[in-house]
Amino acid sequence: MKGMEVLRRSSVFAAEVMEVFDRSPTDKELVSQAKTLCRDYIHSRLNRAGIGWSKPEHGVSAPGSALGEVSSVLLWLGDELEFLRPNVYRNVARQLNIPVASESVVSDAFLAVAAEIFSTGEYLFPWRPFSKTS
């Protein structure tokens, strides 16, 4: 039941954030925002694991901005999901049959997944499906 409340609150928050926009964001803006949110999430998880980088990254959302608030909620939802379903988030490399013998193996696997995600030419977001060619 707690998971449903988390989803309900996040949906309400997402609706409030979208009301902030007085126009629909362009496809390019949506992709940029999605990249920033992913970067924030990955950076947060790496820092939490003690392996984050200290150099400020381009595209990190500013605290207090609408995107910064969305990023905070995304991080909170990630924490909640990890709490509710810890086995899904543990030993991901083992679940995917990826040997983690060296940093280069991890880097290659990460880059392969990222390339696959962005190679299809289709970006589907729950709030606005669109094609890269549109």
UniProtKB/TrEMBL annotation:
This is BOK. GO terms for cellular component: membrane. InterPro entries: Bcl-2-like_sf (IPR036834), Bcl-2_fam (IPR026298). The keyword Heme does not apply. The keyword Membrane applies. Coiled coil: none annotated. It is found in: Membrane. It comes from the Eukaryota. Keywords: Membrane, Transmembrane, Transmembrane helix. It is a single-pass membrane protein.
